[in-house]
Amino acid sequence: MEIITAVRGFKDILPPETDKWRYIEGKAHDVFSAFGFREIRIPILEKTELFRRGIGESTDIVEKEMYTFTDRGEESLTLRPEATASVIRAYIEHALHAAEPVTKLYAIGPMFRRERPQKGRYRQFNQIDVEILGPDDPHIDAELLVMVIHFLRSVGLSSLNLEINSLGCEKCRPGFREAIVSFLRGREEELCGDCRRRLSTNPLRIFDCKVEPCREVMTQAPRMTDFVCEDCRRHFETLQQNLEQFQIAYQVNPKMVRGLDYYTRTTFEVTTEHLGAQNAVLGGGRYDHLVRDLGGPDISGIGFAIGLERMASLIPEPDAKTSPGPLLFIAALGDKALQEAFLLCNRLRLKGILAETDYTGRSLKSQMKRADKLNTAFTVILGEKELVEKRALLRNMRQSTQEEIGLDDIEETILKLAR
Ligand code: AMP
């Protein structure tokens, strides 16, 4: 019969890969807690309107990539393509701003974008999303970057490049936008169809275009750094000084605009050469008006999202032989021994000891092979004769030694091995 496979662009995360994910998530919980963050769990499905308004109508995500459908109640719903809009929705809906002047939240889970699948790019992928809501003080931007670099280092990632930029604010960005439009006027022929359209809808997006002629044109384009107002310039400088205080290396990349419309002032990305074409591990930035634009109070925010698939792919595979196997394997020979093995194995597990056994009644040789493959530390061999004599053989697999032990206090003997 024909097998049913997963949907294109959706992938299973199998063990031992899942061990890496748990390791990364565990580190995230620890590091983020020390910086005062709390976890928030948000739904995967939202009203489509949230993303249209939040991310921006003329972004690639909203224009081309969302999984949007009309549900049976005739409501337009969308599988979340990113988490920030949902976190802000929850923040406003539950008036979290009323409780604290600064709210620090993080969320972990799957996102959905109908992009062209390739290595490092999936249609369902997972992100760790981190947000700080409160004042627009540049110390907050620096604090967030200090934390993220510390987090990446703490999971063992090095040779990372931090790129930062300032996209300006409501005051200075319109001037930059106009400068881009007048720079490109008369050069429309050199741009791809999408960028020609972007010229009137969202000219900054053209910096993000991957088509070679567009990239070529944009190398000559004006830079936001030349247009930032005094406030934005000071904001950006304070951030840089504070990164230097913590010896965090960075590069200013004036062409980095990021794919979402809500960003103001600070934007950043962490990339690495080890990822190939999809080289961004994480991206984020400041959004001083998103809360207001989604109907909330005038509170600023800054956040970032880390791609878990990309991050996990940078951490080396654990070596099966060095990863700890079970403490005990119980090789049982005959029905009675098998029942005894069942009881002992599960009693040990109830006490938190990783034990394995085999109910197939296979030969001792093949059971020992399995014990070896599992990388078990000890094996107990239980045969019919041993049962009658109330004893068992305990084999130390690492030292290749064995001794006889009594069956009556076998559980206690094994528990002692675990200490
Ligand atoms: P973004 O939400 O687009 O700013 O992306 C933040 C991070 O999420 C990126 O740096 C990637 O690590 C990851 N990411 C974004 N899109 C995908 C995708 N389609 N597949 C896998 N990871 C992704």
Quick structural summary:
With 419 residues, the protein is an alpha+beta fold.
Task: Summarize the topology.
Blueprint: H1 17-34, E1 38-39, E2 45-47, H2 48-55, H3 60-65, E3 67-70, E4 76-79, H4 84-93, E5 103-112, E6 124-134, H5 138-154, E7 161-166, H6 173-184, H7 193-201, H8 212-218, H9 230-245, E8 251-252, E9 264-271, E10 280-287, H10 290-293, E11 300-307, H11 308-314, E12 328-332, H12 335-350, E13 355-357, H13 364-373, E14 378-382, H14 384-388, E15 391-396, E16 401-406, H15 410-418
Helix pairs in contact: 1-5, 5-9
The protein binds adenosine monophosphate.
Largest sheet: spatial strand order: 1-5-6-11-10-9-7-8
**CATH topological fold name of the largest domain:** BirA Bifunctional Protein, domain 2
Mean pLDDT level: 94
Shape: elongated
Structural class: alpha+beta
Portion of residues in helices? 25-40%
Secondary-structure arrangement, i.e. CATH architecture of the largest domain: 2-Layer Sandwich
Radius of gyration: 28 Å
Account of the protein in words:
With 419 residues, the protein is of the alpha+beta class. The chain folds into 2 domains: 17-172 and 228-314, Bira Bifunctional Protein, Domain 2 (BirA Bifunctional Protein, domain 2), CATH 3.30.930; 328-418, Rossmann fold (3-Layer(aba) Sandwich). Helix content is 37%, strand content 22%. It contains 15 helices and 16 strands. The site of adenosine monophosphate has 17 residues, from strand 6, strand 10, strand 11 and helix 11.
Features:
2 domains, alpha+beta, 419 residues, binds adenosine monophosphate, single chain, Rossmann fold, 8-stranded mixed beta sheet, BirA Bifunctional Protein, domain 2
